[in-house]
Amino acid sequence: MPDPCVISGINAATMVPGGAPYGLLEQAAIVVTNGVVDWVGPLADLPAGFHDLEQTRYDGRLVTPALIDCHTHIVHGGNRAREFELRLNGASYEEVARAGGGIASTVQATRAASPDALLASTLTRVDALIAQGVAMVEVKSGYGLDLETEMKMLRVARRIEGVRPIRVRTSFLGAHAVPDGTDPDHYIDKVCLPALEACHAEGLVDAVDGFCEGIAFDTAQIARVFDKARDLGLPVKLHAEQLSHIGGAALAAAYGAISADHVEYATPADAAALARAGTVAVLLPGAFYTIHETQAPPVAAFRDCGVAMAVATDWNPGSSPLGSLLLAMNMACTLFRLTPEEALAGTTRNAARALGLDDCGMIAPGMRADLAVWDVNDPAELSYGIGITPLNARIYQGTP
Ligand code: DI6
Ligand code: FE
Fold it and tell me: Do β-strands 237-240 and 259-262 pair in parallel, antiparallel, or remain unpaired?
């Protein structure tokens, strides 16, 4: 595809709010210059200045912003298929743990993996996402729980952009789990905070995350991590109210977090606080599905309060071994009753917001020309199909 050029023959779901559903433009044209959208509108209105540009036609196809997976743990060693099998054969949680299962086993495998081996396994996951039209992925640390391995994970995440046409945002998740035999306060003060400082000093951290949960860290411990993030000038986000209600959503709102993720047990009062703070609720139906959760996030309250909702895979080896963002959209509709338009906004416009980005997630002048071209007529088909990937082409900064 030449640059500049005009993409034509298409319908465009621009995802720009305020107009038609999906920001849909029929018989549309998108002008791309220097990898950025220069103009978008009905082909019939193409300004004269663009008439001489070469046209790239995708006749009869639907173009959307490229998808954004705004919550993943795709850098990790090993997998937990064995533990999955043991549980389905009737093993208890304790038996699984004694057989070396659970998050501790992923920590062990991640510590043991060389950077090159970690990168290789990560790239198989990145390639699966790219094949689904994803052009931006968030990647968390959190399976190291020591300075060296947290840093190794983030360095691996940073290497992805050099070898694949995809953009990466990193989140430091040192406060993900309490290492076996450690006091959580001691871990936060003596390991997590120094690791955050060291990773930040090396330019490895775009945002700071935590797991605020009975089985992980309480609000006072997360607040210490967020205070450090504030000192370092880094945005914060939080795994909040996933398994129980312990105040994570309110804490995220109080710190002006860019996102609060999972939020199954968030209350209407939390929704109001998130709305006031402009915090995006990131819904992760893959984890809900995998752990047989029954409490769905308060989607109606989010809508009523005007909380923006994003949707992501949470791709991790334990609670969400989900490698399909399209399937996450389908699950968000079926399990959480999002509309297909909300699900697509959740993996485009609102996913960008959940990462603090304003240059992607919509097709509009000035946005990056990161686009997905689909063999569908109706944008609802993207959420409707189960296990179907109707991607025709992915355009990354104007390049197919
Ligand atoms: N929430 C989760 O569901 C996962 N981490 C988190 O913060 C669990 C990750 C794992 O089991 O490996
Ligand atoms: Fe997660």
Answer: parallel
Question: Does residue 11's CB lie within 6 angstroms of at least one atom of ligand 1?
Answer: no
Residue 25 alpha carbon to ligand 1 centre in Å: 39
Closest of 33, 66, 44, 51 to residue 363, by C-alpha: 66
Q: Is 287 in the pocket of ligand 1 (CB under 6 A)?
A: yes
- Among protein residues, the one whose CA lies closest to atom 7 of ligand 1: 211
Rounded Cα–Cα distance for residues 145 and 152 (Å): 11
> Do 353 and 313 meet the contact criterion of CB atoms below 8 Å apart?
no
CATH topology of domain 5-66+361-395: Urease, subunit C; domain 1 (2.30.40)
Length of the chain: 400
Same fold, 5-66+361-395 and 67-354: no
Closest ligand 1 atom to Cα of 211: 7
* Domain range list for the chain: 5-66+361-395, 67-354
Separation of CA 114 from chain center: 25
- What integer is the mean pLDDT of 315-330? 98
Residue 97 has pLDDT above 90, yes or no: no
Rounded (10°) angle between helices 147-163 and 115-130:
50
Kindly give, in sequence order, each residue whose CB lies less than 8 Å from that of residue 240, ignoring residues fewer than 6 positions away. Answer: 212, 248, 249, 251, 252, 260, 261, 262, 263, 266
Fold for the domain defined by 67-354: TIM Barrel (3.20.20)
For the record, the structure tokens of 235 come out as 């945005």
Atom 11 (ligand 1) nearest CA = 318
Tens-place pLDDT, residues 173-229: 999 999 989 999 999 999 999 999 999 999 999 999 999 999 999 999 999 999 999
* CA atoms in the 13 A half-sphere facing the CB of 10: 29
Ligand 1, atom 8: nearest CA belongs to which residue?
A: 319
Residue of 73, 208, 237, 246 with the most ligand 1 atoms within 8 Å of its CB, for mutation: 73
**What's the pTM?**
0.98
